[in-house]
Model the fold of this input.
Amino acid sequence: MIDVQPSVIGILASVPDCRLDRTKAYSLCAILLGTLIGVICDCDSYVDVADFMRSQREWLGQYVDMSNGAPSHDTISRVFRILSPVALSKAFSECLDILQIKLKDKIVAIDGKCVRRSYDHASGQRPIYMVSAWVVERGLVLGQIKVDKKSNEITAIPKLLDLIDVTGAIITIDAMGCQREIAKIIVDKGADYVLAVKDNQKKLANVVTHVLDTAMDTPGAGLQSEWVKFVDRAHGRFEERRYLCLSADAIKGSNLASKWAGLLSLIAVERRSAKDGKTTTERRYFISSLPPNVDTLAKAVRGHWGIENSLHWVLDVTFNEDNSRVRMDHGPENFAIIRHLSLNILKRDTSPKVSIRRKRKMAARGVTYRETLLKN
Done:
């Protein structure tokens, strides 16, 4: 028997079991650990997990009670449907503590993703929408929460921030999260923010875009600014990004600066791309509680989109999340949490320089690599 992290098993064993005692033929810890390892090992459904647990009964028995054999996919489904997502999220956070992530000056991107096939026409259930916090430099999920049925990201983001410790981090959020209340929560939690500005904050957008456009188009207008430029050439495409930042003092006359907690900087990003003889130019705008240092702010803005490429894309393509038919009750949210925890475990192992997809297949085929993942 290998020295698998006893803390992970202990954390899963501490998740409250809401089943009646007479219905507990299989321990909750066995089902959770079997599902977690199954998802690591390329399982994308309850049926896959049940088949994996059946084939690996003897191996799993080293860590959890498998004396009654492996649970059926229906049993696993029932457990995930009634299991409290709050309790599982708490266990996720405790497992994350094992990684000892230091967030000082790290970029934490917050964004939402629809699990497209989690809808259920029979019960009128819409697809669930998960909002996640992603540590860009570490490639790890810091936390996640489901958006309430009759709500949106604006109400989900404060709840997510309440679940995680973001002290010292730089929080980046798209325009949906550009809200005064969210900015205040971030500052109160000892973090900084970089928030995209669009027309959902009309007055702020009008003032910020006017000041930044003036600084970009007329450099001699008397505004003290910093700027940096990046140029990319690939696949027949030319792309130039120009980042400009100003002190928030530039909008003091509007009385808006005092309404946004900790506001210190304004940022504009001009993106010019050319392909097949066609050139397009667009600008995006941001506000931040960071001092007006263009290099730091440009890194934060660029880093935010890592959540799309390194989390959402991986979940869709590697974990087949968008095609998952886990859809009843708490099942979709709980299975999404398991996927995130599996991704964290796969990401933290950097010994083989291979994709997440190959790591999953390596874990499925070889006990040695699977055990390496679990004891790291």
